[in-house]
Amino acid sequence: MLSLTNRLLLASSAVLAGFLGVTGLVLDNAFRESAETALRDRLQGHVYALLAASDVDTQGMLHLPAELPDARFSQPASGLYAEVIDSSGKPLWQAKSMLGVSIPPTPMPTIGQRRFDEISTERGVALFSLAFTVSWESAAKQQRLYTYRVLENRNSVNAQIARFRQSLWGWLGAAALLLLIVQGVILRWSLGPLRRVADDVRAIEAGLAHRLHGTYPRELRHLTDNLNGLLESAELHLKRYRDSLGNLAHSLKTPLAVLRNAIDHEQDIGALRTLAGDQISAMTQLVEFQLHRAAAAGRTAMITPVAIQPVVENIIAALSKVYADKGVVVGLDVDQQAVFPGDAGDLTEMLGNLLDNAFKWCRQRVRIVIRTTMNQSDTVIDIAVEDDGPGIPEQLKAAVLQRGVRADESAPGHGLGLAMVQDTVRLYQGEWRLGTGTLGGLQVNLRFTHRSV
After folding, report:
1. What is the sign, positive or negative, of the torsion defined by CA atoms of 253, 257, 259, 263?
2. Mean pLDDT over the full length of the chain
3. What are the DSSP calls for 61-130, one per residue?
4. Euclidean distance between the first and final Cα of the chain, in Å?
């Protein structure tokens, strides 16, 4: 497949060749018409000169001097010829240049009219002919018609046109070559940033770099920023996978060691069961938390934004069935244009945990408010989830965000919900706050900021 440079060069060269070709044809045609017009004017001037030199005697006979102003009329076969013809078509006078030259007759124009023809001699020599008819009145008051005909060899005009064509196409060819060189230089300079992007990508593929570090034009900056975002996201995902697996392996050592020691030394079956249950529960929490961290997509470049309202409505519909016995009244105030700039699974995980906590602890009312605000460069999404439950005491708000800690140990659960939400919010570089809402219970506020398109 042709490169971008070759494609642009071929396309622009074809356009340039077509433009210069049409320009050359137009100029060539214009010059040819101009040369023929100049020839007509020149022949007309010769006719007027012959008329000025003509004289009619008392007998009505036409006389012209032996020598005319243009010396070519006196040189045989000079290429410039002239004659005067009477009304019967008989030549009354011929220039000396017509000696030995046989020129076919042409139709005579009416009085005062000019007639321009292209004819050939018996030997095939092309001529331009201009005929002009006048009426002379003799002393006896008799009107006599005379046709003045001047002819010139076409070779002079053809030679002039040939010289012009040679000069024209020579200059156009030189201009085309110069324009192609300039065009190649401009294309190489213009496509330089794309080559730098390709070089940076090759360096990343070879393991010599981790980012695109070049300075790129505004048109490419969005692309290169997104590529760097993808590379950063991939690197962060890989790091999270490795960290989560390492943390999981390290965290499981202690409960496994406790189980192994209990199996070796504990004689009481009841105590062993209790200990095993506690350690299995701890390991379950560890696995769930670390798997959640590893699976969270986080902020990723070039991801399709997720409409928030359908996700919220699906979660509320599911929770309303789970907590149908409580008859929870849900206040939903969601901006229909609100979108989440991330993974749909992460959004469902966060809202699902927050709303599940709200349904679980509320007395009867849950409220969720989502607003979108925009400025010149950023879009801000504010999410607030609150209930009319007992809330969380101020001294426990920091503790409940830790993995495995619950505000009420008597309630079912692993104490991972808020910790998972907090971890996901951090992945998206968002803001998180616990407070007291207008309903009197816990209110959780999330804020996400992303660049506007």
Report:
1. positive
2. 81
3. -EE--SS-SSGGGGSTT-SEEEEEEETTS-EEEE-GGGTT------PPPPBT-EEEEEEE-TT--EEEEE
4. 33
Tell me the pairing of strands 126-137 and 306-307: unpaired
Taking the C-alpha atoms of residue 404 and residue 415, their distance in angstroms, rounded to an integer, is 4
Write the pLDDT tens digit of every residue in 285-337.
667 655 655 555 455 555 678 899 999 999 999 898 888 898 899 999 999 88
Section 139-150 average pLDDT: 81
pTM metric for this prediction: 0.50
Give the other-Cβ count within 10 Å of 313's Cβ. 13
- The rounded distance, in Å, linking the Cα atoms of 373 and 375 is 7
The first and second tokens of residue 396, run together, are 């426990």
DSSP 400: G
Model confidence pLDDT, tens digit, residues 20-41: 899 999 999 999 899 888 888 9
425 Cβ contact list (under 8 Å, min separation 6) = 350, 431, 432, 446, 448
The angle that helices 269-295 and 218-265 make with each other, rounded to 10 degrees, is 170
d(CA 84, CA 268): 148
- Which residue bears the tokens 């490795």? 242
- What is the per-residue pLDDT across 160-215, written as a single tens digit (0 to 9) for each? 889 999 999 999 999 989 998 898 888 888 888 888 888 888 888 887 787 887 77
Residues belonging to the chain: 453
The answer to whether residues 321 and 359 touch, using CB atoms and an 8 Å cutoff, is no
Q: From CA 23, how far away is CA 172, in angstroms rounded? A: 9
Report the alpha-carbon distance of residue 219 to residue 234 in Å, rounded.
Answer: 24
- Report whether 370 contacts 312 (CB < 8 A): yes
- In whole angstroms, how far apart are CA 272 and each of 102, 262, 265, 286? 137, 7, 10, 21
> What is the mean pLDDT of the segment spanning 33-51?
89
List the structure tokens of 79: 């290429």
Q: Decide: 420 and 401 in contact? Cβ < 8 Å.
A: no
